[in-house]
Amino acid sequence: MALPRAHLSRRSFLLSSPKPPPFSSFFRYSPHLQSQPNCKIYNSASLHTEESMASARQFEALSRKKLNWKPLCLYHTQGKCTKMDDPTHVERFNHSCSLEVERNGLGLKNFRAQKFDYFLVLDLEGKVEILEFPVLLFDAKTMNVVDLFHRFVRPTKMSEQRINEYIEGKYGKIGIDGVWHDTAIAFDDVIQQFEAWLAIHHLWRKEHGGLLKEAAFVTCGNWDLKTKVPQQCVVARMKLPPYFMEWINLKDIYLNFYKRRAPGMISMMRELQIPLLGSHHVGIDDTRNIARVMQRMLTDGALLQLTARRTPGSSNNVKFLFENRI
C-alpha cells in the first residue's frame, strides 16, 4: 500500500522523529550474545560501492571484539551435513537458524501487528550470475526465524575456468569455495526446490496462481528482485515465477519510519547498534543480519508494507509504492 503524499521539505522529512540511536553509543548492546562459544570468524568478502571498504572493515573488527560466535555450517544449511555425530564439528559450527529477539529499551511495547504472517528475507550473491540463493522464513508474530532455504547456484553460461576464477574471487578469500563446489546446482533446480520448500510451509501453491500466501519477500534494496532474478530467469530460459512480482525493500521502510537514510545493511546495523555476525557478502550471513535489523525495527514499532510491485504480465515495469525512497 502506498503511503499518502506529504509535501515535506527534505530537511523536515529527514529530521523528524523517531530516530535511531547515535553512532557513538554503538556496542553497549546485546550482552546476551556473549555466552556463545568462541570460534573462528570469517574475514569479509568484497564490499558494495555504496559503503566504504574501510568503514565496513572497521565495523567487522569491532563486532569481532564484541561477540563470540560460531559460523553456520554451510553444508547443514543446505541439508547436506554428514558430521552431526562429530562432537568437534558440532562444537565448531552453528547448526541452528534461530535468532534471539533484538529488543529495544522499551521491550515490545511499540510492536505493531503486521499485514503479513511471514516475511521471506532474501539476499542474493553474484554479479555475473547468481551464486547464492538464501531465504530466511521469519515469523511476524514471534519475530524469530522459523526455517531457512539455502542453495549455492552454479552458473550455466560460463566456462569452467571462468567459474573457478569467479568463485575463487568471491568465496575463496574467506575459505568457503570448497562447500560451494561441493553443493552448487543449476538455478532452475534451485527454484524447483525452493517452490517445494514454500509448499511445505503452506506459503505457496502452483494451483492457486503461484502467488505467495500470507507472506512477502524482504530485501535490502531493489536489486535482488527487480533486476537480478529476472536476468537469471532469462539466462535459465525460464519464466519469471509470479511470487517474485512484489516485495518489501527494507531500506525504504527504514527511511520512512526513522526519517533517516541508510544506504545499506551495514549502515542500518551501525545506527541501530547491532553488531555484525558472520561475513558481509556471504548471502546466508547477510540474510541473518537483515533479519536482525528487521527485528529491531519491528520492536521499535515499524510496519512492514510492500514497497514495489511489477505491472501484471511484465518482468521489467516496476511501480514503487513509497514516495520517499532510498
Automatic annotation (TrEMBL):
Native organism: Olea europaea subsp. europaea
GO molecular function, one term: 3'-5'-RNA exonuclease activity
Gene3D superfamilies: Ribonuclease H-like superfamily/Ribonuclease H
Domain Exonuclease: 118-303
Keyword terms, alphabetized: Exonuclease, Hydrolase, Nuclease
Record protein name field: Uncharacterized exonuclease domain-containing At3g15140 isoform X1
